[in-house]
Structure formats: structure tokens, C-alpha cells
Amino acid sequence: MTRSATVEAEIDKADGLLLSGMTYTIRMSEKTAPLPIVPATAITWDRSGAGI
User: Fold this and answer.
1) Of residues 51, 29, 19, the one with CA closest to residue 11
2) Which end of the chain is more exposed for a tag (fewer CB within 10 A), N or C?
3) Cα separation of 9 and 32, whole Å?
4) DSSP reduced 3-state for 50
5) DSSP for 18-41?
6) Are strands 49-51 and 44-46 parallel, antiparallel or unpaired?
7) What are the residue boundaries of the structural domains of the chain, listed by start?
8) Would you give the distance in Å from CA 40 to the centre of its chain?
9) Which of 20, 31, 29, 23 is nearest to 7 (CA)?
10) Using an 8 Å Cβ cutoff, are 52 and 43 in contact?
11) Would you write out the chain's pLDDT as a tens digit for each of its 52 residues?
12) How big is the chain by its Cα radius of gyration, in Å?
């Protein structure tokens, strides 16, 4: 699953390599337990909610 978010951070730029106004891309990952994959066509809906 991919999500995006806008964040604001303070970074020590003592070495002068990071300049004001620059943009950055950061990738983070979090290990989670595998989840079952169910095709959308297998999901049915009724008055009580969704079911498989």
C-alpha cells in the first residue's frame, strides 16, 4: 500500500548542502504481518455491511 503525506521537519544543515526551498523525497517502510488479499468481486453488501 502506498500513501503520501506532507510533513515539515527541522534538519541541521551545518555542512551547507541543504538549501532553503529545496524539496526532498524520503521513503519509509514499516514491516507488518501479511494480510489476506480478496478480489473486489468477492465482496458482497447488504443492510448489515460487507461480507465475503
Assistant:
1) 19
2) N
3) 26
4) strand
5) S-TT------------------GG
6) antiparallel
7) 1-52
8) 21
9) 23
10) yes
11) 567 777 787 877 767 787 878 887 877 778 888 888 889 999 999 999 999 8
12) 21
